[in-house]
Amino acid sequence: MPQIAEAIEELQGIDAAALPEALLRPTRPYVLRGLAAHWPIARAGTTSAQEAIAYLKRFARDTPVTVSVAPPQAEGRISYREDMLGFGFTQEKATLPVVLDGLLQQLNDPAASTIYVGSTTIDTWLPGFREHNDLGFGAIQPLASIWIGNRSRIPAHQDVPDNIACVVAGRRRVTLFPPDQLQNLYIGPLDRTPAGQAVSLVDFTAPDYRHDRERFPRFAEALRHALSAELGPGDAVLIPSMWWHHMQALEPFNVLVNYWWRQSPKWMDTPMNALLLAIMSVRDLPPEQREIWREVFRHYVFDADAQTAAHIPEAVRGLLAPIDELRARELRARLLHGLNR
């Protein structure tokens, strides 16, 4: 891993049962040391991998989950093949008890294949787990997921929701980049991704780092803005919306519990859909027309305020009025009608 000079700022003494409002509307990342240290799963994870596996099996349902499996030569990386014509891992179905038994059997195998169960909804596959292993979000109802595996490396990617990720077994190194490092991270395809999100094509632990500098010369600039931390059982990291994050599991058995939530109403669409529509309808216009639409987007979207439609009577502002659930439905219907012509 290339040397990263700056550590993620740390906060101590956060009440896990009642997270403060400032943490639920984050604009910068923090490491929250010991936030989940009192959880039974974190105590088990501190004791041993065997204890953590036994604890998880108390809740695990016999319902298949998706398991990503990569050969030993992938060295844990869940990403594309070298030619990018396919992925360097396969996906299988297995129950969590079977996966946990497999990980237990491979604990002492240095040449083990990578086994990775990502983004599995806790309430569905581990019912009852959150009764004793949970954070207090108040009125917010986040999506709680669990991530289980051995030594995996998840390429840098973004998520639209805010995120608190709690390590409860093993150790993980998290590397973060501000959203403005997009052009320096060499992001892959938007529509053919390893796990739903576009990822950086840079291999952070490539042994031939000079070669990667030739392929990805601006990555050195991204590293100047990077933040990093190593987390153990009970530690958490707060990742604000759209911050790039690379996750590396460092032990033969690792478990992470994370929470996603958005600061917008559920009826608001994801901005990614707007990006895809703009790629289809704006990106390939002649340069002069693209500049016109840049100004239109600036006026109606990025710099919109109370003055944007102040000259129009309030009763007839339509979509220029504040969007609520009813207007969102109307707008969605309008878009679908236009797209289905």
TrEMBL record:
Annotated JmjC domain residues: 115-276
InterPro entries (alphabetical): Cupin_8, JmjC_dom, RmlC-like_jellyroll
Pfam families attached to this UniProt entry: Cupin_8
Transmembrane feature ranges: none
Highest taxon in the source lineage: Bacteria
SMART domains in UniProt: JmjC
Protein known as: Pass1-related protein
Species in which this protein is naturally found: Lysobacter capsici AZ78
